[in-house]
Specification:
- With 224 residues, the chain is of the alpha/beta class.
- 33% of the residues lie in helices and 19% in strands.
- The longest helix is centred in the C-terminal third of the chain and has 17 residues.
- The model has no long low-confidence stretch (mean pLDDT 96).
């Protein structure tokens, strides 16, 4: 299983007036992946951006583009996000009736496939698709907005999914309220990839913020 800590700043918290500059900055300051939150105003109560923005940002970094689709339906847009330069495409288990088909489609496009769960969805929802995923994303806030407070009970879901994954080569990612105070909790439970928005972009010292999250996450991982 992947053990290296991955820090994936979410550009949802970046300055949208200068997104290219922001992506270059987090790349320079130590991020591992760039997390792209795509929202449709339907599946979640917010609207962000589509594949054209992903394509426009692609030349600004060689880091993994970790695209999180909070949209329903998602299937009609998978090819567009693949062509735009996404490396990982994550869809929600709740976004459509044919999750297995969606994941197969992502992989057929030559991309890594992820599945995400909202806080109210049990881990059993993904039990029968684990052989088709490269990443599981646990939402530790209700999706739709940045800056929300971490939901502590989701740590138990992270722990349960880590057991389900076993020795499969699957990243276990957490998104929502992740900062230097909560990073260790989720890595101790088995997560290895952390999405952080406001905790990275606040104050403008991205390198310091990323390093603080990584230090806490590494300590939590060591405590497993």
């Amino acid at each position: 299983m992947p053990n290296d800590i991955v820090i994936a700043p979410s550009i949802l918290s970046a300055d949208f007036a200068k997104l290219g500059d922001e992506v270059r900055a987090i790349d320079r300051d130590g991020c591992d992946w760039v997390h792209l939150d795509v929202m449709d105003g339907h599946f979640v109560p917010n609207i962000t951006f589509g594949p054209d923005v992903v394509a426009a940002l692609r030349p600004h970094s060689d880091k993994v583009f970790d695209t999180h689709l909070m949209i329903a339906p998602c299937d009609p847009y998978l090819e567009a996000f693949a062509k735009a330069g996404s490396d990982i495409i994550t869809v929600h288990a709740e976004a459509g009736p044919h999750l297995d088909r969606s994941l197969q489609h992502i992989r057929s496009l030559g991309k890594k496939a992820g599945v995400s769960l909202t806080p109210s969805t049990p881990e059993s929802a993904i039990e029968y698709v684990l052989d088709k995923v490269d990443l599981v994303l646990v939402m530790t806030v209700n999706p739709g907005f940045g800056g929300q407070t971490f939901i502590p009970v989701q740590v138990e879901k992270v722990r349960a999914i880590r057991r389900m994954i076993g020795d499969r080569p699957i990243h276990l990612e957490v998104d929502g309220g992740v900062n230097a105070d909560t990073a260790g909790l989720v890595t101790a439970a088995g997560a290895n990839a952390l999405v952080a928005g406001s905790a990275v972009f606040k104050g403008g010292d991205y390198a310091k913020n990323i390093a603080a999250i990584r230090e806490a996450a590494t300590a939590g991982c060591a405590a497993r």
